[in-house]
Amino acid sequence: MAFNNLDTLYRQVIMDHYKNPRNKGSLADGSLTVDMNNPTCGDRIHLTMKVEDGKVTDAKFEGEGCSISMASASMMTQTIIGQNVEQAMKLSQIFSEMIQGNDYELDDSVDLGDIEALQGVSKFPARIKCATLAWKAMEKGLAEQK
């Protein structure tokens, strides 16, 4: 597939997650709650997650922000549900490397799915914080849960 076609496809995936966010909302009692914001641009997220027996069994988010920030939150929740905590943290590290334009390694246990659509953000340093906000919230929540 030509680069322009791939770029267009990635934009469509991002806009789909922005306009039709997955896992939007919040979870009731017993869930981890993290509120974070990006003071530079005003993006904010309220992330709730359920972790049972070392596994992320559910995750939801609410917030306001640009298409990159909200699409990333949608993709992140979709990706971590069903993962054990260690795998979710590994995915976050891989995402961080990818979004900064660094080399990253994938093994058979890693499926980035729609997240790959955000790799082009690495060309826009001012947008990296937008893309990583939900992931930083997830890392904070899982670290505090331990």
Index terms:
alpha+beta, Sufe protein. Chain: A, 4 helices, 46% helix, Fe-S cluster assembly sulfur transfer protein SufU, NIF_FeS_clus_asmbl_NifU_N
Short précis:
This is Fe-S cluster assembly sulfur transfer protein SufU. Helix content is 46%, strand content 17%.
List the helices and strands and how they pair.
Blueprint: H1 3-19, E1 32-37, E2 44-52, E3 55-64, H2 67-80, H3 85-99, H4 125-145
Antiparallel strand pairs: 1-2, 2-3
Helix pairs in contact: 1-2, 2-4, 3-4
Proportion of strand residues: 15-25%
How many individual β-strands? 3
Radius of gyration: 14 Å
Mean pLDDT: 92
Order of helices and strands: HEEEHHH
Q: What is the total number of structural domains?
A: 1
Structural class based on helices, strands and sheet pairing: alpha+beta
Shape: globular
The end-to-end distance, rounded to whole angstroms, is: 44 Å
Widest β-sheet, arrangement of strands: 1-2-3
- Fraction of residues in helix: 40-55%
The assembly state of the depicted protein chains is: single chain
CATH class: Alpha Beta
Q: Please summarize the sheet with the most strands.
A: 3 strands, antiparallel
Q: Please tell me the CATH architecture by its name.
A: Alpha-Beta Complex
Low-confidence stretches: none
- Count the DSSP helices: 4
CATH topology (fold) name: Sufe protein. Chain: A
Protein name: Fe-S cluster assembly sulfur transfer protein SufU
Domain NIF system FeS cluster assembly NifU N-terminal: 10-130
InterPro entries: NIF_FeS_clus_asmbl_NifU_N
Organism: Lederbergia graminis
